[in-house]
Amino acid sequence: MTYLVFFIVGILAGVIGGLLGTGGCALIMPVIRFGFDFAPALAVGTTLTAVVFTASSGAIQHIKMGNVDKETAMLTGYSGILGVIIGSIVFGYIKPYGSLIDLIIGIAFIVVTLRMLYEGITGLIAAAPPQPAPASGQGLPGTPLSKSILGSAIGFLTGIIGLGGGYALVPSFLYLFKAPMRFAIGTSMASFVWMALVGAIFKLYQHVVNIPVAITLGLGAVIGAIYGAKLVARFKPAALKTLFGLLFLYVSLKYILIYFGITI
Questions:
Q1: Helices and strands in the chain: count of H runs, count of E runs
Q2: Are 219 and 90 in contact (CB under 8 A)?
Q3: Considering Cα of 236, then 23, then 91, then 264, what sign does the dihedral take?
Q4: Residue 40 class from Cβ within 10 Å (0-12 exposed, 13-18 middle, 19+ buried)?
Q5: What is the pLDDT confidence band of residue 236, given thresholds at 50, 70 and 90?
Q6: Is the dihedral of CA 231, 237, 242, 244 positive or negative?
Q7: Which of 38, 39, 157 is nearest to 96 (CA)?
Q8: Neighbours of 56 (CB within 10 A)
Q9: What percent of the chain has pLDDT above 70?
Q10: Which of 2, 11, 4 is nearest to 219 (CA)?
């Protein structure tokens, strides 16, 4: 019965991730951390391992649809692996300090919150949500050096807190490189799958992964993401982002305040 609950959580995370373009990990991590009382390090490792399933599935689909700039994916992905390795080594040192991990994740979630609330509220006020100007030609603009630096930074972040795909790569491609939306999402998936895989291997080595739970969550999220993508047209994105932005504001404050011994 417990694994059925995890499977349902994975489906819901996949649906919401598909609707918001943030990836299911942003929901999975706080749910297993607070809903199922996972230790902070175990929540990070289990979430990142589950994300391997969704990132792999998403990457395959976007490659088939022609939504991946392969050069950018290679540059960002390969440099991201280096970042993940360094971040995972750092994670190994802070692993015993659960409250510190909670604080770092809480600060990271603030970024998610601000992005969602900005896009949501702006979209509700305006006739349509503001979008970056489309890039000319195909693929993502930007220099190889800038893409490599971005990959290393996101990889480092992933190695420590297990987040990085839709959470950080998509908005970076959109707002820093002014990439078209479909290339931002597709290339993010293709880049991040390597970071997630290497990060998961490190987390397994560091003994912070509940393997059965990670597999159950991952399979559920893959299914949920399919339906989430189909439901996008039925909801107003701005309203969804405002609603979940407020939810993630609560999540981020919960993470941060728990570091100071305050429970909300």
A1: 10, 0
A2: no
A3: positive
A4: buried
A5: confident
A6: positive
A7: 39
A8: 18
A9: 89
A10: 11
